[in-house]
Amino acid sequence: MKTCAVILAAGDGKRLKSDIPKYLQKVGGWSLLTHGIENAIASGVDEIYLVMGEGDRKNIDTGRIYVVEQKKKRGTADAFYIALKSIPAKYKNILLFYVDIPLIKPETLKKLIFNHEKNNANITILTTNLLKPKGYGRIIRDNKGGISEIKEDDLLNAEEKKIKEVNLGVYVFKRSQLLMANLSCIKPKGKKREKYLTEIVPFYYGKGLKISSLKLKDAQEGLGINSRMHLVEANSIIFKRNALHHINKMVTVMAPENTYIEKNVKIGRDSIIYPFVYIEAGVKIGKNCVIGPSAHIRSGSILDDNVSIGNFVEISRSHVASGTKIRHFSYIGDTTIGKNVNIGAGCVTANYDGKHKNKITIEDDAFIGSNTTVIAPVKIGKSAITGAGSVVTKNNDIDAYEVVVGVPAKTIRRRKHG
Length: 418
What we know:
The structure is a single chain. This protein has 2 domains: 3-222, Spore Coat Polysaccharide Biosynthesis Protein SpsA, Chain A (Alpha-Beta Complex), CATH 3.90.550; 228-414, Hexapeptide repeat proteins (UDP N-Acetylglucosamine Acyltransferase, domain 1, 3 Solenoid), CATH 2.160.10. The strands form 7 sheets. It has a 10-stranded mixed β-sheet with strand order 12-15-18-21-24-27-30-33-35-36, with helices on one face. Strands 5-4-1-6-10-7-11 form a 7-stranded mixed β-sheet, with helices on both faces. The protein has a 7-stranded parallel β-sheet with strand order 14-17-20-23-26-29-32, with no helix packed on it. The chain is elongated and about 90 Å long. It is built from 6 helices and 36 strands. By secondary structure, the protein is α/β, with parallel strands linked by helices.
């Protein structure tokens, strides 16, 4: 059965007390919006509809999704109603979740959809038990265990506040005219005078329609981002989760609790990642590499097999070939480095001229002396040597086997066959 996803991202996120919109807040290097989109794609849905506030579409790349604007923020029920009017009739199931649950796993979303179809339910709700449920809507069940209501936190009475089972804001809905009709009938409630999507549950319950649920065993997946501390918790969880993923792929991560690896990173077997390393999304690292401690590998970088990156080294948008060593206090940006190159301590590639990022090439077997500055664009040839403290100026290429020293770097001799 065809399924689409609706991601609700029109909320202001006022509790974060930030000038940055909630959906652009970052967890594990990705915005909440990116997490939502990637998780929806991985769950196998056919299309994604994103509900945003008026003017918010300018902040995102809409290439993979359809954006629906909620011009007046009247609550989650209104947001879903607006989205439904834009969704083609071919979609019989609709996965809906809020943008602020970045830790939800695609496997959980798949399971929720599967259970919904298996049970032929009208609504399937993802729940979990929390020791401290404050801030979450509570699951109200009847004497037979069926869900009769979901009550928002600000509407609970004293007894209901003791309930530990909470709503995580993840649902699958069966598409129907009844769904549209009930959404349009929901009245504003609470201090915010919003139309809560959860109000549809008692409507369905009263009509005897099937309301199913799936309870998460790992409550961390459902962590909602409503405060700065939630951002701290979510970052800690996702970085540890990502480190364990690579450990399971036969990578040695010396201290998972102090290693920061974003998603979509590839690391080869038998590589070692030392503490306080940060690796950004899209990085590819080969086999038998050594990274860190305290290194930063930024997006767009590729490290081939047997590369050694030491402490306080930053690599940005660069390709480092096999056998190369960059061991101490260096910045390598927009640079292609060949095989078996030695980059001495304190080397800097000056790739930015104030307007553009320029390219540098360092060919196989070159030896770059300590504290060398290489100003782009420039090429350093095979087996060339720069003396300690040299400044290789832009457009002054160094030929193969040449030895250069000084400021600016000048040739003092040519090596025979390296």
